[in-house]
Specification:
The structure is a homodimer. With about 325 residues, chain A is of the alpha/beta class. Chain A has 2 domains: about 25-30 and about 165-295, NAD(P)-binding Rossmann-like Domain (Rossmann fold, 3-Layer(aba) Sandwich), CATH 3.40.50; about 55-160, Leucine Dehydrogenase, chain A, domain 1 (Rossmann fold). Chain A has helices at about 5-20, 30-50, 65-85, 100-110, 130-135, 145-155, 165-175, 195-205, 220-225, 275-280, 295-315; strands at about 25, 55-65, 85-90, 115-120, 185-190, 210-215, 230, 250-255, 255-260, 270, 285. In chain A, the strands form 3 sheets. In chain A, strands 1-11-8-7-5-6 form a 6-stranded parallel beta sheet, with helices on both faces. In chain A, strand 2 (about 55-65), helix 3 and strand 3 (about 85-90) form a beta-alpha-beta unit. The interface between A and B is medium-sized, with 34 and 34 residues. Chains A, B: It catalyses: (6R)-5,10-methylene-5,6,7,8-tetrahydrofolate + NADP(+) = (6R)-5,10-methenyltetrahydrofolate + NADPH. Chains A, B: This is Bifunctional protein FolD 2. Chains A, B: Homodimer.
């Protein structure tokens, strides 16, 4: 037997619940944002070529032939081609020595036609990635993983030469989507050196109140639910369910996880760290996988390389 | 008219409220912890002197004569004296040039009897602190503020040569008080390069789930109330009230704020960022001001200098 007052309250609760469930979160289209950025880079490259005869050059060092790494490198080659960059690759066998990798790096450091260098990660287990990354000339560290670049990203009042591409891509998507960042709660799930850490540092530079959730965190879903802006970068397919989201949150899904799918062409397809079909019902905006953060990462790499070339060539 | 059931509920609520209010939070005694650490450092210094004839040496560069800076430097001189370190100071006038500061630094960099160097901060406004700190030899950066040290503190899998003293002192107090850190929620209030940032990074290294609250944060008290471990480092007297605390939280108060007090000897006394008399009723443990984090900061500086000397002298 429900008293009238209680009945009214129950109805109100139901209304609130329904207003929280909105089936049409905005889909943040990273692919078209990346296309726009690449178009303006291509224009800059033409201008550079016409006025000083140079184009930006990107070099990749690839150790071994991991399937993921090969796919990522292919994307980068295509993107360089699209915008008119020079591209160079040093392919080394899985069993090469640290010295051989450092030699390849040193050659690119000296090569005036190369303005950006990146070492395709992950490196095989037996390598000291930190040592290798620090051989890389700071002025060509377009991935932004050099210790000095990370230090300068962390320290208030400093400017790193380069901001790591995925973090930069995430913020660029937020800014392009007119998402307010200042003072808002942001939660980054995952604390990798490549994505989680730099994304934390960059969100804080934009004055968000940021928390990092990781494998040791107790009650990750409760913390995630406090986020106005949620960045999922744990590498765990469908980790973030609808119940992890604050209604109206903006969700950036960095995960790119292959799962078996006999119906798709290659026997697998890519899904994110966020359960997309649940997220679109709760979030106000969400990035898809593929077609969200991924293409932006490549666009930011091109942007960093363009900046590096402009700095090296004193081209305004 | 309260129905019996509701009455019962009300009583239960009151009981919960009272169990949350406990008037005897443990007072974390930073002074005695620091004394213990200094005693063991003094033993190490004697051992070093007897076996190789050297003692650790600390040098401070002091620009201008700010009252706070003078007081801090006096503390450091006294502490060095206590444990048997050599101490050297370069005093430069407020209106000196950046070059003069860098020259003083370079001299200490070359001086084999000096193993740790610190530049007393803050520097006068017209200085580029970052540029100056990076002149400092990485092996003598006992404050841990060099960009490479901060970068290596931020990046997982790396080991910085030195951890900034206040952050290190905070964690040391937690460990000595048997506070569980792994997986717990930690909130750092304040994001200074000197305290907030390194404390965040160090808590994360110990696998806490960390958030940073700062001047732009919306609803700081709500975020603070989520913390199992709260570090207050905003430099705002009595900012953190009892209502900002989760019952049973552990509270580290880094603030050292002078406030007028005609009844005390010098016309002022020092208070923290945390309203102590409210905190002791809600927290399970809390550091006092003075006598909490402050003495630990100095002890950690001595510890870093001892480590630097051992490394330089290859003394095990």
């Amino acid at each position: 037997m429900i008293e009238p007052k209680r009945k009214q309250r129950k109805i109100l609760l139901l209304v609130n619940l329904f207003s929280a469930v909105n089936d049409n979160a905005r889909i943040i289209d990273g692919r078209s944002a990346a296309e726009e950025i690449k178009s303006s880079i291509a224009i800059e490259v033409s201008r550079m070529k016409e006025s000083i005869g140079n184009v930006p050059g990107l070099a990749v060092i690839l150790v071994g032939r991991g399937q993921d790494s090969l796919a990522y490198v292919r994307n980068k080659i295509m993107a360089c081609h699209e915008v008119g960059f020079k591209f160079s690759i040093a392919e080394l066998p899985e069993n090469c020595t640290e010295e051989e990798v450092c030699d390849a790096l040193s050659n690119y450091n000296k090569d005036a036609s190369i303005h950006g260098i990146l070492v395709q990660l992950p490196l095989p287990q037996h390598f000291d990635a930190g040592k290798i990354l620090n051989v890389l000339s700071l002025e060509k560290d377009v991935d932004g993983f050099h210790t000095l670049n990370i230090g300068n990203l962390a320290i208030q009042g400093r400017e790193p030469l380069f901001i790591p591409c995925t973090a930069k891509g995430c913020i660029e998507l937020l800014l392009r989507s007119d998402v307010e960042i200042v003072g808002k709660r942001a939660v980054v799930i995952g604390r990798s050196n490549i994505v989680g850490l730099p994304t934390f540092l960059l969100l804080q530079r934009h004055h968000a109140t940021v928390s990092i959730v990781h494998a040791y965190s107790e009650n990750p879903e409760i913390i995630a639910r406090e986020a106005d802006i949620l960045v999922a970068a744990a590498g765990v397919p469908n980790l973030v369910r609808g119940s992890w989201l604050k209604p109206g949150a903006v969700v950036l899904d960095v995960g790119i996880n292959p799962i078996e799918d006999p119906e798709s062409e290659h026997g697998y397809r890519l899904i994110g760290d966020v359960c997309f079909k649940e997220a679109v019902r709760i979030a106000s905006a969400v990035t898809p996988v593929p077609g969200g953060v991924g293409p932006m990462t490549v666009a930011m790499l091109l942007l960093n390389t363009l900046e590096a070339a402009k700095r090296a060539l004193h081209f305004p």
